[in-house]
């Protein structure tokens, strides 16, 4: 292998373990934590969801995260290069992950741009009395499916800004770009979100919202789809299985504890998720009370939560503008630090394969990405494409490649003992037979069940 300093100056590296941990948290904490987790938990047993969720985290999520770390940290390459070094012939798995990341980046950027615009809309409640009509009609002009000559006016500027920011971060590189962004923005995100949660808890009706979220439905524990939801949420939320953690781990200096880091990242991500659940449902409780309806009628996730429910809450709550700026600002930061992680998967793969400079690789990747994204989302709402692509990428693209790569590493290549030894050289607590069983049996079975149930849902 190349000498350490050479390799570092050529590929880039995080300057310390702390920076790596913050960048990994930045990737893990994304839209999934804020707008996906609360609703998934609510729908799948409420307080009882904590059981399958913790089981999924401890038996599959963290073990799988450590596997990704081990591959990237030991083989010191982008996803395709790491797989190729693990065993020739498996490089394709890495390229599959690269392709998924490319697709995700196109539409993830659009959601961040919407949130950026809405941060400012919060100041004057631009959505007026009808947030839903405003979002789909005026803002996205979602009636227009055809690509038209006129741009969707509200989206172009924020989307261009997102891409300029991404370009700047990516050109600056691993430490000065991604590292510094994470070190600055992750503490800001946590702070902003804490203030938001406190603010939400002070709203009338917050208690009812929390009751709705946390009241356990123990019968959920016997439902396979609830367990599948927990495993699905954990895999997505930790950003495992799609090349991100392999890539980031390849930028960590050799003598670092990857096991301890994985535990910190895993628990921080779940902590943020819990916090988001509290904040979101406290706010929904307020919305329900204001509308005189039960919380169940206003509970939602995804685009509906962020761009329809929250505007309503912001309009009605005392100090609504503050809530809006904190909420949408958090979405922007959480989204941006995840977006750069998926794009880095693509850039590092291009660099490793074609031996190009960081600047060249960044331009080769970010220019087409941004053009695609801008054409797609500023000339049509893109919302139909986004819905369909997001569903297929999340349900099948990621899950299938995660499952296949796990089976290949564990069973076809029998690589777990070697990877475990690698983690144990500097890592604590050590991993052993337990970890190998979890990664080779429990996590793949969890993934397979999620997949089968998703398929069944789509077919019926
Ligand atoms: N862990 C991220 C989240 O919870 O939102 C998942 C993710 C999605 C990461 C999309 C990166 C990304 F571009």
From TrEMBL:
Covered part of the full sequence, start to end and full length, is 8 to 467 of 544
Would I find Transmembrane among this entry's keywords? Answer: yes
Q: Which domain of life is it from?
A: Bacteria
Transmembrane spans: 19-38, 50-72, 93-116, 151-172, 184-206, 226-251, 263-288, 321-347, 359-384, 396-416, 437-456
Where does the protein end up? Membrane
Q: What's this protein's name?
A: Transporter
Keywords from UniProt, A to Z, are: Membrane, Symport, Transmembrane, Transmembrane helix, Transport
Q: What cellular component terms from Gene Ontology apply here?
A: membrane
Q: Which family does it belong to?
A: Belongs to the sodium:neurotransmitter symporter (SNF) (TC 2.A.22) family.
GO molecular function list: symporter activity
The annotated topology with respect to the bilayer is: Multi-pass membrane protein
Its chief place of residence is membrane
């Amino acid at each position: 292998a190349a000498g350490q300093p050479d390799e570092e100056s050529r590929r880039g590296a995080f300057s310390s373990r702390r920076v790596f941990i913050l960048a990994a948290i930045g990737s893990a904490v994304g839209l999934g934590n804020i707008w996906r987790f609360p609703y998934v938990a609510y729908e799948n047993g409420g307080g009882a969801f904590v059981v399958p969720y913790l089981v999924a985290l401890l038996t599959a999520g963290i073990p799988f995260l450590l596997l990704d770390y081990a591959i990237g940290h030991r083989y010191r390459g982008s996803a395709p290069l790491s797989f190729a070094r693990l065993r020739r012939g498996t490089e394709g798995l890495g390229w599959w992950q690269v392709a998924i990341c490319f697709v995700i980046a196109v539409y993830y950027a659009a959601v961040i741009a919407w949130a950026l615009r809405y941060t400012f809309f919060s100041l004057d409640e631009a959505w007026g009395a009808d947030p839903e009509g405003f979002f789909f009609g005026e803002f996205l002009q979602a009636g227009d499916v055809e690509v038209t000559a006129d741009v969707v006016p509200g989206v172009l500027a924020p989307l261009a800004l997102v891409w300029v920011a991404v370009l700047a971060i990516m050109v600056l590189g691993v430490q000065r770009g991604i590292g510094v962004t994470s070190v600055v923005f992750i503490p800001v995100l946590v702070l902003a979100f804490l203030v938001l949660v406190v603010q939400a808890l002070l709203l009338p009706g917050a208690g009812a919202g929390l009751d709705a979220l946390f009241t356990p439905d123990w019968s959920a524990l016997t439902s396979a789809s609830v367990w599948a939801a927990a495993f699905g949420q954990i895999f997505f939320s930790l950003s495992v299985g799609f090349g991100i953690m392999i890539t980031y781990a390849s930028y960590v200096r050799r003598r670092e504890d990857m096991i301890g880091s994985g535990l910190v990242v895993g628990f921080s991500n779940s902590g943020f998720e819990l916090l988001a659940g509290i904040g979101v449902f406290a706010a929904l409780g307020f919305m329900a009370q204001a509308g005189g309806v039960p919380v169940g009628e206003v509970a939602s996730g995804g685009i509906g939560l962020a761009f329809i429910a929250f505007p309503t809450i912001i309009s009605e709550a005392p100090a609504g503008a503050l809530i809006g700026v904190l909420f949408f600002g958090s979405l922007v930061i959480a989204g941006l630090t995840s977006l750069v992680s998926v794009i880095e998967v693509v850039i590092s793969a291009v660099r490793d394969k074609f031996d190009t400079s960081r600047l060249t690789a960044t331009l080769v990747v970010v220019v087409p990405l941004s053009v695609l994204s801008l054409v797609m989302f500023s000339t049509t709402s893109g919302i139909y494409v986004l819905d369909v692509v997001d569903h297929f990428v999340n349900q099948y693209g990621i899950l299938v490649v995660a499952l296949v790569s796990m089976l290949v590493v564990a069973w076809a290549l029998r690589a777990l003992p070697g990877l475990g030894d690698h983690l144990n050289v500097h890592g604590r607590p050590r991993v052993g037979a337990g970890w190998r069983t979890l990664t080779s049996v429990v996590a793949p079975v969890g993934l397979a069940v999620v997949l089968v149930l998703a398929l069944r849902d789509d077919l019926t």
